[in-house]
Amino acid sequence: MKRRIITTADGSKTIQIEDWDEQYHSKHGAIQEAYHVFIDHGLMLFQNTAIKILEIGFGTGLNALITLMEMEKQNLQIQYVGVEAFPVSMEEVEQLEYCMQLNAPENQSLFDKMHASEWEKTISITSNFSLQKQKKDFKSINDTDLFNLIYFDAFGARVQPELWTEEIFLKMYNALQEKGVLVTYAAKGSVRRALQAVGFTVERLPGPPGKREMLRAAKTKE
Asked: Which residues are registered as beta bridge partners of 83?
């Protein structure tokens, strides 16, 4: 499928899949969306501890980068696993210029290290942040009671409805530890109902620019 780099409303860039008219991040603001959904309503729930994060859709690496940048403010140690079936190229990553957009040029070498790291191996990006990229289909995830936080950042249900089903969300539920949390930009009623059907306690939260709502789901005691 043909992909191209586009500039979103907040000036940051993302990748658009032209055949689907779908973007890796919100066209209303890639960086704004990433911070609002995954940092403000996900990572900020954790402080002064060691946590494990699973990202569904590693994609451009933006969510991993800003997680790394925000980690020290929360006094966290993070083991980060990013699952991606169709990795982006280094050429595309370079065109996105995320470290420049984030006014963090000092992190460019770390961001490059993330993308250059070998798949299926755990790599220490910093002393407090390790990354393992897994190249596989989301349906292949079979982890149990492992993660504290899931960034569910798959392509939208309009173009890939099979990623937003009870089957997938049951895998997410099983992968989380007790009291673990899943956050996603999505807010469709069908997504909320699928999350609830597998056992999640779901809350609607104000969405990022361009979206009225988003969802946060918690794994609570049965």
From this structure: 56, 134
